[in-house]
Write a structure and sequence with these properties.
This protein has 70 residues and is an alpha+beta fold. The chain has one helix at residues 41-52, and strands at residues 3-4, 14-18, 23-28, 59-64. The chain has a 4-stranded mixed sheet with strand order 1-2-3-4, with helices on one face. The longest helix has 12 residues, at 41-52.
């Protein structure tokens, strides 16, 4: 089962994918370097809030959609 929080904003750079009720994946996609700045705080805050308020989530993996960036 995979569900993603979808946004229509073209500036979205952080995505949450629920692989299962217990395993979620957060992907950062801001080429070329995935530099994290103040503009990403609201996006990350939304995801952290979803993680904190879901009692079933056990594992969250952060990864990069940009090859070679962490």
């Amino acid at each position: 089962m995979s569900a993603t929080i979808n946004h229509t904003a073209t500036d979205r750079q952080i995505y949450l994918t629920r692989r299962s009720p217990h395993y979620w994946r957060v992907t950062i996609n801001d080429p070329p370097l995935n530099i994290f700045g103040p503009d990403k705080i609201p996006q990350l805050n939304e995801i952290v809030t979803a993680i904190e308020t879901d009692d079933e989530v056990k594992v969250v993996v952060f990864d990069s959609a940009v090859p070679g960036s962490f």
